[in-house]
Amino acid sequence: MCLGVPAQIKEIIDSDNQIAMVDLSGVAREVNIACVLDNTHQAQDLIDKWVLVHVGFALSVVDEEEAHKTLKILDEIGELSATMEDLDQGSR
Predict the structure, then answer these.
(1) What is the topology classification, in CATH, of domain 5-90?
(2) For the residues 34-47, what does the mean pLDDT come to?
């Protein structure tokens, strides 16, 4: 399964190559922002905006509230997955 994960753009680190630094659940990552640049979103305008990131590319700008909801759901899925693994290991 492939997911886009919400991340917040913190700074533009290379305008020429359209690279930004994002905060991805507390981890700093470089991502390419070429897919989200247009007449509405110039590089500097994206600082502090939320984007969906997949394999190093920001695919779309997303609403901050939706980003937080998605991160909460992903966290819950991770907790559920860990619980299922613990239960599975306990039955062996």
Answers:
(1) SH3 type barrels. (2.30.30)
(2) 91
